[in-house]
């Protein structure tokens, strides 16, 4: 019997009174993701040793295109990689996350993937929204859409509450932070202009 059959070997988010089939499915996915990160680390070592992508592909037994993806994954910050490993985020999600340059936006999107079960299609739509909207377009959005767009741009939770009085054009914008890094990010963004 495979040791991964026991639920105690799973990360916290995978533990439950699931059936044997469900546990085996998660064990295979967890093992694939572990193998994936090992391949990414091997790829990084071989790349820094001066090997070409084709040589690495031949050595690891994967396609050259996959080597290219693995090299890009090594651009992620250690904190983001730690989150991705902890929650066993899929390769296709990771391929999309790599295209986002901001660490805070990546962290926010990972939270959306974990907490809301964001599919790869939805993630792609969110990333496209993130890159396409200009400042003028953002100002024209309704409060709920602006709330989402700002949260994506900042990588932090944003609350926009328009005034309940119809004749007033006032309201409240609140930025939320969970740690000192998020706090510093908010202050830097506010002082940027």
UniProtKB/TrEMBL annotation:
Cellular component, GO annotation: chromosome
Matches recorded under Gene3D superfamilies: 1.10.10.2830
One Pfam entry name: HTH_ParB
Domain of life: Bacteria
GO BP term, example: chromosome segregation
InterPro entries on file: Chromosome_partition/occlusion, HTH_ParB/Spo0J
Domain ParB/Spo0J HTH: 45-128
Protein name, as recorded: ParB/Spo0J HTH domain-containing protein
Organism this protein belongs to: Spartinivicinus marinus
